[in-house]
Design a protein that fits this description.
Elements lengths: L7 H20 L17 H11 L6 H15 L6 H17 L2 H26 L5 H81 L3 H30 L16 H10 L3 E6 L10 H21 L4 E8 L3 E10 L13 H12 L3 E8 L7 E10 L2 H10 L15
Parallel strand pairs: 1-2
Antiparallel strand pairs: 2-3, 3-5, 4-5
């Protein structure tokens, strides 16, 4: 069996104990002065050296140190005895409880307590004198007291380690929550920035391309008017967003979130940008105002759908339809697809569909987008955006605050923005 290198503190304790025991032996101080013992006074050093050796194992091999120390203590009783040997034995018991296995930490105090009681009762029955109780007291001080002390120290250490671990776990969870909150806020800001500005920039890109490609003064003048209008509105929305981001004092009044009441103006702006758009609002006339997150999500989905139609749809009519029942608000936008659009197009980044899907997922709703066959009329394909947004106000507000949508595994085929 190989023994690990003793701990520095254990070696120091063993060295001090051995020197102290040798000093007492050299001075002729023993626990039994003038007592008769079967072996000579020089043998007192054997239990002393053995006990000092067990001190080297008190931390690394307590299950070996304790039995050997017990035998050394018993052997010491057949000599004139050394006080340091007894003191080192108490330390070995203490260390066996503190550094031993959990089972040993529970067993040693109980065993030492039973030994103390047995020694007290046994010597009291043998001597029939009250002075025999002193044997029990000494036995308790040598064995039971250090075992109980070790148990208390071990309990406090375990409590401290548990508290430290709990604090580390709490700090880790707080850091995870902070990271998720930052990620969710960045995603929300990205969606808002994209939806607020993409529509205006797309119109600017398309009309500026038309103005540059067509040699017609009236067309260029109309295109420049649309460009100026979208530039001013986009710049105003950008300034509002930047103001909200920069102002951390809370003194600035937050900008009002878009609602479904603004859809008519949004559709009119899309017509100004060149789209043939119709709005079919089939909601009940006496319907109550919806929760702010629901109205904002619906508005942004319509806005992004019109932006995509402006950039990618073929010639034809774009329809926006709203419907509402007791459980959900349905938003559907259809635009011509599958054909070549005349005139310039604006490039797409692929972020629009992801943003719309996230907005629906935040409210525990559903979202679909893709090409479908026309239901009537001429043949061809229609690009259909369909979203169902639950009207549960509490759930909508919780989802909006959490900001953790289920990201799609992959974007829809043919999706652009």
């Amino acid at each position: 069996m190989t023994f690990p290198r003793p701990h520095r503190d254990d070696a120091l304790i063993a060295g001090i104990g051995l020197l102290g025991g040798l000093l007492l032996w050299g001075l002729g101080l023993h626990t039994l002065q003038g007592g008769d013992r079967p072996i000579g006074p020089g043998w007192v050093l054997v239990p002393l050296f053995v006990m000092a050796g067990t001190e080297l194992l008190r931390r690394t091999k307590p299950h070996i140190a304790l039995p050997v120390a017990t035998l050394a203590l018993v052997a010491d009783q057949f000599t004139l005895g050394n006080l340091v040997t007894i003191l080192m034995f108490t330390d070995v018991i203490y260390a066996a409880v503190v550094y031993g296995t959990p089972a040993a930490a529970k067993r040693i105090p109980v065993t030492s307590g039973l030994i103390t009681v047995a020694m007290t009762v046994g010597f009291l029955a043998w001597f029939h004198k009250p002075q025999a109780l002193l044997v029990g007291v000494v036995t308790g001080l040598v064995s039971f007291a250090p075992a109980v002390t070790g148990a208390l120290v071990r309990t406090h250490r375990q409590a401290a380690e548990t508290a430290t671990l709990r604090a580390e776990q709490t700090a880790l969870l707080a850091e995870m929550d902070r990271t998720q909150a930052i990620t969710a806020e960045r995603a929300r800001m990205a969606r808002e920035l994209h939806d607020m500005v993409a529509n205006h920039l797309s119109a600017i890109a398309i009309h500026s391309t038309a103005a540059l490609s067509l040699d017609d003064a009236r067309t260029s003048r109309d295109a420049l008017g649309v460009i100026r209008e979208n530039s001013v509105e986009g710049l105003a929305e950008m300034r509002r967003l930047i103001g909200l981001l920069r102002d951390s004092s809370g003194d600035q009044e937050p900008a009002a979130a878009p609602t479904l009441d603004g859809l008519a103006a949004l559709v009119e702006q899309a017509r100004t940008n060149g789209l043939d758009v119709t709005l079919d609002d089939a909601r009940p006339a006496d319907a109550d105002r919806l929760a702010a997150p629901v109205e904002l999500a619906a508005y942004r989905i319509v806005q992004e759908s019109l932006t995509n139609a402006l950039k990618h749809a073929g010639p034809g009519e774009v329809t926006v339809r709203l419907a509402q029942d007791a459980d959900a608000l349905t938003v559907e936008v259809r635009s011509p697809g599958g054909g070549e659009r005349s005139g310039p197009r604006a490039p797409g980044s692929g972020a629009g569909l992801v943003g719309m899907r996230e907005r629906a997922a935040l409210l525990d709703g559903s979202f679909e987008a893709g090409l479908i066959d026309r239901t009537s009329g001429t043949s061809g394909k229609v690009w259909r955006v369909h979203a169902q947004l639950p009207l549960d106000t509490d759930r909508s507000e919780r989802s909006e605050r959490s900001g953790r949508p289920d990201r799609p595994d992959r974007p829809d085929q043919g999706a652009t923005e």
